[in-house]
Structure formats: structure tokens, C-alpha cells
Specification:
1 helix, mainly beta, 3% helix
Length: 131
């Protein structure tokens, strides 16, 4: 069964492909039940903050709080996932590096379902705030 301790961390798409792209999407899960999904490129930044929890059946619930889009500014987030299935397992990534990979049963953003672990200790990571 999945538990919330497995999710804690910063997960990245680009880390699975290396040596690095001009853009990346991160999803961050903090121990306090908050987190965010963030898309960054050389010309664009967008993120949604959210609250999350694991249901009694071991599935993930995410409810958006705020959205930030560098073109539009701040608004209320519209992301919501109920009973989202996920799996964390060690995989051989396209960059030929073996790492933990978090796979969701449906995309969190666009077509993105798979994220490699970038950082487990997220105590020093703060929720993004851009003005």
C-alpha cells in the first residue's frame, strides 16, 4: 500500500532525461500536506499550489489552492484529483540512470504522468511566490 512518506520530495521530469533541457515540470509534496506543480522554461513560469492527502484506499487526493501564470498573474487553482492512483518504483530512465520514478494513473499537467526523484529532503524548499 502507498503511504504519504513515499511521496514526500521534489519530483522532476527532466531529471530522467539529462543532461538538461530548457524546461522542466516539478511536483513537490511536503510533509504538512501541501505542495505544488511547477512548469518552468527560459521564458515562462506557471505553478499551482495544492493540498494533498492519501485516502483510506491508498489513493491520492489533490485540491488546488492558487495558480500563478507569468502572463496572467495570480488566480484560484482549478486542479483537482480525487482517488488518483500512483506508483513509486525504481526504474531505468531514458538517461540510463536508475532512480525512483513516481507514475500517476493520469496526467498532472498536459501529458505528464512520470516524474523522477530529484530530492527527498524538502525541508529547505519553500512554496514558490513570484510577483
Amino acid at each position: 500500500m502507498n503511504n504519504n512518506k513515499n511521496l514526500i520530495g521534489k519530483w522532476s521530469i527532466d531529471i530522467m532525461y539529462g543532461p538538461g533541457a530548457q524546461e522542466d515540470t516539478f511536483v513537490v509534496f511536503l510533509e504538512d500536506g501541501t505542495g505544488w506543480i511547477e512548469y518552468i522554461s527560459s521564458v515562462f513560469v506557471e505553478y499551482d499550489t495544492f493540498n494533498w492527502n492519501i485516502s483510506n484506499n491508498g489513493e491520492l487526493n489533490i485540491v488546488g489552492i492558487d495558480n500563478y501564470d507569468c502572463d496572467e498573474g495570480y488566480s484560484k487553482s482549478t486542479i483537482k484529483f480525487t482517488n488518483l492512483k500512483y506508483e513509486i518504483k525504481v526504474e531505468q530512465t531514458p538517461s540510463d540512470i536508475e532512480m525512483e520514478v513516481l507514475t500517476f494513473s493520469e496526467p498532472l499537467r498536459c501529458y505528464e504522468c512520470k516524474f523522477g526523484i530529484e530530492k527527498r529532503d524538502v525541508n529547505d524548499i519553500k512554496t514558490p511566490k513570484l510577483d
